[in-house]
Specification:
five-stranded antiparallel sheet; 196 residues; 4 helices
Length: 196
């Protein structure tokens, strides 16, 4: 399932952020500098098993939060493909223009920034099969409310750059709404030591 594979990649990055794997000191000779993200790889069978466990736990919670949004907003999930906000824009196969893909993610992030709070579940981007519309959804941790931002391609707009160097976005928020949803707890992940 495309959603599970993409969620697996996303959950790995989320776990890395939660667990601090991406942190690094800018002083090269510092005795307390941390390894970069690329240096933090599962080296043993135990580390690989734990990494897989973390991916599965995060994926399960994100999938449950997205499915709750589909129920709340009465969306047919089979009409949309999931994309992580951490994925490269060029990977959105329903949109043939790399510029339009980039602008979709930009419009989605600009829409969600006003409502999302620290600790809320990671937003998921879902693109319709025909590439003409998409939505971004996330679940609020404290209340369980589901937020959705419907984005549509505006055929009257052309990609252009103004005098300040800003690109005219061809995507616009058509509708934003929130609905009650099921409250979902964040996963309580075991440490590597507690996992074994």
């Amino acid at each position: 399932m495309k959603v599970r594979k993409a969620l697996g990649m996303t959950s790995f990055f989320a776990a890395a952020l939660v667990l601090g794997a991406g942190y690094g000191n800018t002083e090269a000779n510092s005795s307390n500098s941390q390894p970069s993200y690329h240096e933090c790889k599962a080296e043993t069978t135990k580390e690989k098993a734990w990494s897989d466990y973390v991916d599965q736990e995060i994926e399960a919670v994100l999938l449950a939060s997205y499915q709750d949004a589909f129920r709340s907003f009465e969306i047919d999930a089979s009409e949309f493909s999931y994309y992580s906000l951490h994925e490269a824009s060029k990977n959105i196969k329903e949109i043939t223009s790399p510029t339009h893909s980039y602008l979709l993610k930009k419009a989605a992030l600009e829409a969600v920034v006003q409502d999302i709070q620290t600790g809320d579940f990671m937003p998921g981007l879902f693109v319709h099969k025909d590439g003409s519309r998409a939505f971004l959804t996330f679940k609020q941790l404290e209340t369980g409310e589901n937020y959705i931002y419907w984005l549509q391609l505006n055929p009257q707009r052309q990609v252009s750059m103004n005098a300040e160097g800003e690109i005219t976005n061809v995507w616009e928020v058509a509708e934003a709404e929130k609905k009650d949803g099921k409250k979902i707890e964040k996963p309580k992940l075991k440490s590597l030591q507690d996992f074994f």
